[in-house]
Amino acid sequence: MSAACPPIATTWPKVAPRAVSGTPIQTAASQIESQTHFLHKIMMRSQRITFLSTAPISFTRVNCKQRSEIGPGRDAGRRTHGRVRRMWASWWMLAEAQRWAKMERRMVRRMWASWWMLAAVFACRLPAQDTLAVTRISATAGDAVFLVDGQVLEAAAVFTWPAGSKHSLEIAPWQSAPSDSKTRYVFQHWSTPAGALPDPSNSVTITADPGIPWYNADLTTEYDVSINFYQCPDGGCAPPGTIWLNQTAYLQNTDVWLAAGSTVSLDASPNAGYVFAGWGQNGSLAPVYTFVLNGGTTVYPQFSVARVIQLM
User: Fold this and answer.
1) Model's pTM, two decimal places?
2) Distance, CA of 304 to chain centre
3) Mean pLDDT over residues 147-164, rounded?
4) How would you classify the pairing of strands 263-270 and 241-245?
């Protein structure tokens, strides 16, 4: 048996064919062809090729130039079976990929839904006092002193308080300016963007509210007008005259506080036995003196004893 021509499996004894009367003699090639056709039908119905034969398998030599019909049929079955398995494997992998993609989309949607629900629940459970109120406390005069919750402040300050919390504001009814003893600030009321507080007191309690961004102590500035002309002794008072300031009489030295920018009207009236000798601060001899108050000032009305004059 030559190595170039492989043996082909058969199921009949290796004997020479004999002629039967009336029956044509079949060659080995035709017998092999019929056997191959039969096996091919079986292979198409089953995934495995099974040789059903009671006779022993023997090998015979055929024409080496003709390709065996058994080998290609079996290889075709194997290739078909492999293609089917690969096709089913591809379908399964595609189905699994689609299933995992759907699961991933559902997980992402659930994750976002859970996050929003958690944020909503957290926001709903926040107590009201966690809302902060930023509040500025100030006074009309930049150098005025006031108190916030007992803390002394000399300038405007900003506080961050929980909404709804209570706080005290306090300022003196009046106070001197730190840099000028003849200037003072007089409290009027506490005010907000909505206007003055109903309580006119200089000491109030407020509630922190995000809708009220500031509180201000409204102050007016006053200047001192000092009248210096006579000091009454303890035993009695006999002044040389009377000084009228804005129609108010003063008989001795005094300090009068008037609003900044107001008009001051002075009138010197000598008593009996005295004559008015002028204003010492400017040398004017007129008994009436009027000016606009733009700062603290001191006036010096002067009186002299009247002398008897004899006419010749």
Assistant:
1) 0.57
2) 77
3) 96
4) antiparallel
